[in-house]
Amino acid sequence: MMSSMNVTQFNTLGQYECSFRAMNTWIEVKFQAAENEVENLILLAKNWFETVEQCFNRFRANSELSYLNRSAGKTCLVSDPMLEVLQLAELYRVKTDHIFEPFVLQALIEAGYCESFELLNIDRVDSSPFRDRYKAQAYPLIALDIKMKSVLLPAGLHLDLGGIVKSWSVKRFASYLRNKRFVEKGLINAGGDLIAWNSSEERTHQWSIGIEDPWNPKKELGVINRNNLAVATSSTLGRQWTNSQGAQHHLIDPRTMRPSTSDTVQCTVIGQDPVECEIWSKTICILGREEGTQMLLARAPGYEALVFTEDYQSHFYGKSELWKTVDTDEIHLTV
């Protein structure tokens, strides 16, 4: 069974890795464990990400998210994972002035993103005409009853939680491995949203995280070496398709409810929390380099960003030594 899951030992220190598809992306799991625990830990990883997909996948009619969207306007009991993610979504709606906005499902459908990306004919997608709509700031908050574990979505509004679920699932499984299974060294990566940890402070045992060139995915601009970190990358270049309105992508600007048109095509954010990293990488892509990084530096102290703009320039915002090995065009040091 282990071989069918593509499990390999990647060094002589009892460290193992595997990869599999889930949540419409590749999941990569690396960890240090005794040999007799490996198969069980990998099965737990696959089961966890498959469970998350079943709960939050908007393309599955029987997912909890689809049920919740069909029930907009009615009070619904929800699972603990759904309640937790919705609480985080509300937190980051406020923290980003609603630039992170979960009520973008209709906008994605109107842009043509109406089925799982690997099924799209990216050269030509049927779409509906974009409609004028209220700005995201006018959208009401989700009514959450924590004690009752119930949710009331505003009638007529529907959720897409793809902008937060990957990093949340990575964070939750890493927490389980660390705190319940006592895995001292590990890395979990879900399509560029990752967390790495290591109880050892020895520099020789640090994790190495490659930073991809957005215009040449086979090339790395450099490598970050660190024991404990979280990283997330958002991009308008990866999931693109064409419809009658022209080129489209999956990052919706809630101020227009259309794919964003800022100067930023990719952003990598590094910090301690993968959810925070994912939210801010998307926010910077939507707001653009200057406005987005100003908000990041003001509201997420300690987080750093590598921003790639449409003129093929790269800009680093931060103060750590981590990025010295990464090839960037401009460095904006922060205090």
Automatic annotation (TrEMBL):
This is FAD:protein FMN transferase. Belongs to the ApbE family. InterPro entries: ApbE, ApbE-like_sf. It comes from Paenibacillus vulneris. Pfam families: ApbE. It catalyses: L-threonyl-[protein] + FAD = FMN-L-threonyl-[protein] + AMP + H(+). Its EC number is 2.7.1.180. The keyword Phosphoprotein does not apply. It is an enzyme of class 2 (transferase). Keywords: FAD, Flavoprotein, Magnesium, Metal-binding, Transferase. Its cofactor is Mg(2+). GO terms for molecular function: transferase activity.
